[in-house]
Write a structure and sequence with these properties.
By secondary structure, the chain is mainly alpha-helical. The chain has six helices and no strands. The model has no long low-confidence stretch (mean pLDDT about 90).
Length: about 130
């Protein structure tokens, strides 16, 4: 198994760009989580997620340089996120990973992180 910091070496900017673009193409069409993303900031959200993932998995520190500490839970606080939203986010990300052709060894590092983070972002009991 590869380490978290090796993911960027495997995917590079291009791989993360492809993953995030596929994810946000699905978000745009999604009836549950799509409305959480203001249309005028969808491209900004895409760039932020790409830069965050690149940094988190061993790439350049662009996210910190432009946004500071991620503070993910605080930044997602204004959005009502329950189990359904977390599951949908994961469903869309799983499809994006598949469509982006993410190798199994890279997916084995990314997926547990995505599952953990989606759970951590939940701020509404159901």
């Amino acid at each position: 198994m590869i380490s978290d910091s090796e993911v960027y070496a495997r995917l590079g900017d291009e791989g993360f760009e492809r993953l995030v673009n596929l994810f946000y193409a699905a978000v745009r069409q999604d009836d549950l989580i799509g409305p959480m993303y203001p249309p005028q900031d969808l491209d900004g959200a895409r760039v932020r997620l790409r830069d965050f993932l690149v940094q988190r998995f061993g790439g350049p520190m662009r996210y910190d340089q432009t946004r500071g500490h991620p503070r993910l839970r605080m930044r997602h606080g204004p959005f009502s996120i329950g189990q359904a939203e977390a599951r949908r986010w994961l469903t869309l990300m799983a499809a994006a990973m598949r469509d982006a052709g993410i190798d199994d060894d890279v997916a084995a590092v990314l997926w547990p992180y995505f599952v953990s983070t989606a759970g951590h972002m939940m701020n509404r009991a159901e």
